[in-house]
What does this fold into?
Amino acid sequence: QVHLVESGGGLVQSGGSLRLSCVASGSVFSMYAMDWYRQAPGKQRELVAGISSGGSTIYSDSVKGRFTISRDNAKNTVYLQMSSLKPEDTAVYYCRVRRYNWWGQGTQVTVSS
It folds into this structure.
C-alpha cells in the first residue's frame, strides 16, 4: 500500500492562494491516477480534481478556473494550486490513489472572509 502525506494547508484570506502537496511512498507512483477531495464540516466528501497517469485532468465545476492539479512523478508528488479562494472552499483536503481508494490523512484549509 502507498502511504500518502498531504501538506500545505492553512489559514488564508478570501481571494488568496495556497498550494497543497501530497507525497506518496513507493516507486510506482507514476502509474496511478490521483485525486484531490475535500470535506467541509457537516458535508459529504467531494471530488475537487483528478489527474491521470498520463496527465489528463478533471475538475469539479465549483473550482474550475481557480484550482490546478499537477504532478511531479520524479518527486512522487501531486499538487493542488488553489487561487481566488472563497470561504466556501474551507474544508479538509485529502489526496487519494484512485485505483485502490487509498487516502492520506488530510490537510485543513480555512478561508476567512
Remarks:
- The chain has a mean pLDDT of 96.
